[in-house]
Amino acid sequence: MDLQLAGKVGIVTGASRGIGRAIAQTLSGEGMRLTLVARSREQLEELSASLAAESFVQAADLRSPEAPAVVVAATLERFGRLDLLVNNAGATKRGDFFSLSDDDWIDGFALKFYGAMRCSRAAWPYLRAGGGSIVNIAGIGGRTGSADFTIGGAVNSAMLNLTKALADRGVIDGVRVNAINPGSIVTERLKLRLRTLAAEQGVEEAEAARAMTLASRVSRFGEPVEIASAVAFLASPQASYFQGALLDIDGGQTRTL
To answer: Is residue 250 assigned to a domain?
Structure first.
């Protein structure tokens, strides 16, 4: 299927690894020109060199209030347009609620929520001008609470509400805004959780993985490219009737309505 993305311009935050890296690779494979954003310039440069289409590196800490506007301005200067913003940056700390500090909570919201909000605000006029779109990468923790994921769940819930609110405004302005809730995806973060679980239980990592999938009642973990493919679809004209959609890509882990 031709997604009609060739020649269009997108910003992908959190692009240096994991889901963000897969998103960049997939969009570039569709012919999109990209601004790659993360804190690690070295990883971004390595990724940029491997991509099929033109890309532009912006090493930035999106927790800084000024950074999103700088990234958007640099993208416009480089490419002259903006068609897509993928808000993917941000990881939140797990742990027992009573062990998490105020700073942990502040940091959790600073990058994933406030970074996405500010990127959206800065990008909006240019997305409106070209009928572009935003795809927010949230997470199933925003739909189903978990005792060891209180920060992440709260942040993801806020991301989903922001998606709905911006989609409402987007009906007026001609900007499509949707979100994806990944489940357990095979990234370095998941692998670290498995190593920790294996060490705590005194078992092999493969056994820890089986236990985690069993507890989640899914048949397997997801792959980053499965999230990336959905992003490409949502960014394309093929998804022109998607507005305010919240897509759970989690192998069936979310069983609530």
So the answer is: no
| CA 86 – CA 38 distance, rounded (Å) | 12
> Which residues lie closer than 8 Å to 16 by C-beta, 6 or more apart?
36, 38, 39, 40, 43, 44, 47
Rg of the chain on CA atoms, in Å: 18
Q: Taking the model in full, what pTM does it have?
A: 0.95
**205 in the same domain as 174:** no
Supply the CATH number for residue 148's domain.
3.40.50.720
Q: Is residue 256 part of a domain?
A: no
CB environment 216-240: b (16+ within 10 A), e (fewer) = bebeebbebebbbbbbbbbbbeebe
- 166, burial (CB in 10 Å: exposed 0-12, middle 13-18, buried 19+): buried
The domain tally of the chain equals 2
Q: What is the mean pLDDT of the chain?
A: 96
- How many whole angstroms separate alpha carbon 143 and alpha carbon 220? 20
State how far the Cα of 58 lies from the Cα of 234, in Å rounded to an integer: 24
In a domain, 3, yes or no: no
- For 31, the 3-state DSSP assignment is coil
pLDDT of 189 above 90: no
Segments forming the whole domain that contains residue 207:
187-221
Q: Region 134-142: what's the mean pLDDT?
A: 97
In a domain, 253, yes or no: no
* Comparison of pLDDT for 155 and 201, the residue scoring more: 155
